[in-house]
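Usage

Read records sequentially. Each one opens with the input sequence:
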Amino acid sequence: MAGIFRAYDLRGKLGETLTPKIMENIGKAVGTLYKRVMVGADLRYSSPEMKGSFISGFKTTGSDLFIGPEGSAGLVWYSAHIKNAVCAYITASHLNSEWNGLKLHHGTGVSATPDEIRRLEAVYNQGDFQTGESHIENIDFSQKYCDIMTEEFKAKCDPVIDFGGGAASKHIPDIWRKVANNPKFLFEKTDPYLKVRDPEPNEHTLTELRKMVQGKDIGMGYDGDGDRVTFFDETGQRVLPENIVILLSKDIHKPKIVVNVECSNVIKDYLPDAKIYTVPVGHGFVTPACMNHKADFGVESSGHFVVGKYFYFDDAVIASLAAADELEGKLSNFTKKLPKYYYEQVNFRVPDEEKEDLMIKIKEKMEQDYEVNTMDGVKVILDDAWVLIRQSLTEAKVRLTIEAETKDRLENLKKQFSELIQ
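and closes with the structure output:
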């Protein structure tokens, strides 16, 4: 069981740290901790069995259970329509098919906090589960969600969408067919083994999308569970999520925007009148901050978006539809107006048990040479650049993020600060 309970969710390798029996007991723990829960699952091959095991455990606790459909389209949004319900989403997000797990969200859209995950782990380990006969009800709001999307948006451009065979391949292609006049699709057919491409969407994994978008207007690729999206312009160049937020903000006076510490300075520099709120990495921070500040947008550099006009849920589908609705012509026609920075993230594999000690050493070293911000990791602000080193709370890695005004400056900083991690 070591390591399955992470800071914001649960993730385990099938047959090793995650088995049907383990998921059954997780269901019992969730039913003990929460009185009303809606369960759904992504479309990977192990999810039906894991969902069944979760239900088998949960239904013995006496708590109310609402069984939602597979696929992530609006899944968290569903729980908002069930009073006081928590959404339990069986997924391993962007990890490959050897993994599965569980995400928990409240009906407000806010994900479970690290403290809640720790309480769930304690209940699981103690094994003193609540018992009783549960009320069980099947629900499916997917058509209502799709209807809202198709009524709200109308693409003014020609998009190319890569569904990656993941959770977004259910329902979302039908939305795009109704919203856009000439959409082009990649990997629309569901692939339970996620072999058509890596479920982590970035410029290295979305190679087919980068080819197909050539000469079109905008490209978008979803991750394995459909809650993140990566954008490309018509040349195949990745476009920062922050630039998409600027696109969506262009008609809003003094927008309120929540960003995390990894985000580019482009929003601050291009929208000087915007009110910007900075939070640690994780939509568990972004979403409540958007609610607290009544923000227009929330964004993470990983491709999570909150579009406050519609609701304060982390929803990549809405962000991508809104971008296609707002964009007229080719994406680079807009992005070429923005300040140009050089931005890169480099991940280093570091065992979970070594990450904390490594970060302590890095902090001590960097504090000797720089004034640092330790909101989340260790961040150095320079005259022409910034550098952030932080440990992942969900994976065995430490990430180096750099933004600089020139390519040479970025490369020099990357070499310099990589030596602290390796």
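Summary fields computed downstream for this record:
- The CA atoms of residues 72 and 88 lie 11 Å apart.
- The chain has a mean pLDDT of 94.
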